[in-house]
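Reopening this ticket.

The earlier resolution said the output was attached, but the attachment link was broken on my side. Pasting everything inline this time so it's all in one place.
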Amino acid sequence: MPDTVNGLPLHPLVVHAVVVLLPLATVGVIAIAVRPAWRARFGPVVIGLAALAAAAIPIATSTGDQLAGRVGVPHDHEELGDSLILFALPLLAAAVAVVWTNRTSSRAVLRRTVAALAVVVALANLVQVVRVGESGARAVWGTSTATGRR
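Inline output:
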């Protein structure tokens, strides 16, 4: 895989797919978890978003490794970035479980339990994507402020 596009590092470009898709998927999971009427209509879309986000993460980590070879390794960001897939895959599973139990289970307790767990998994994803993004921003910008001082 190339590590640049038109002279720009590919990693920041790919990362934006994760930064957009994963939070959208988390909001979608929360929405279908708390609004059962939306599960049939929007569930497949949410599953698709979660799958795309999960698929983008290994590409982002791979391009990040390539970039680190050129500029150095931001260890905190690398560790957090590598762990993000461990959050995204359960989010995908939670989305599938919410939609599947809605279609197959007549037990309201099971549907509510799966929905509640899905919300917890989604919130954990939001926290982790913010942590990864913040560590990446700190690796690039350090402690600089809007005034440009370090």
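Reporter confirms the inline version is readable. The first helix runs from residue 10 to 34. Helices lie at 10-34, 39-71, 75-83, 85-104, 108-141.
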